[in-house]
Write a structure and sequence with these properties.
Layout (H helix, E strand, L loop, with lengths): L4 E4 L2 E4 L1 H7 L5 E7 L2 E7 L7 E2 L1 E2 L6 E4 L1 H6 L6 E5 L2 E3 L4 E5 L2 H4 L5
Antiparallel strand pairs: 1-2, 1-8, 2-7, 3-4, 3-5, 4-10, 6-7, 9-10
Length: 108
């Protein structure tokens, strides 16, 4: 079982274990890239927007499509598997550092 997330074609793939630990009961998220860190913030009110955390399979894995976020950063082609994540209480977000060679491409 993977403890990290995957990113491919502007989508963030979250295994069920990560969802259960950090995003249980959350239906939408906001995906941001700041300071060479990918952040997934839970959205608790439907009117707040965000992207749907879609069910991917019967195991409970989820996917959030955020092509615009990755495209704005020049990272639409970014593909990373098993990216380690941690909960950042200050940011109230699930955070994953972007690997070094890809981080150089992040403009903001």
């Amino acid at each position: 079982m993977s403890s990290g997330i995957a990113v491919r074609d502007g989508s963030v793939y979250l295994p069920a274990s990560v969802v259960e630990t950090y995003l249980q009961g959350v239906a939408a998220v906001v995906v941001l890239i700041r300071d060479q860190t990918l952040m997934v913030l839970p959205v608790h009110h439907a009117t707040a927007g965000g992207c749907l955390l879609k069910l991917r399979n019967v195991a409970g894995d989820r996917v959030a499509q955020a092509r615009d976020v990755f495209q704005d950063q020049g990272l639409l082609g970014m593909t990373v598997f098993d990216l380690p994540v941690h909960w950042n209480t200050e940011m109230c977000a699930l955070c994953a550092p972007i690997p070094g060679d890809l981080a150089k491409l992040v403009s903001r």
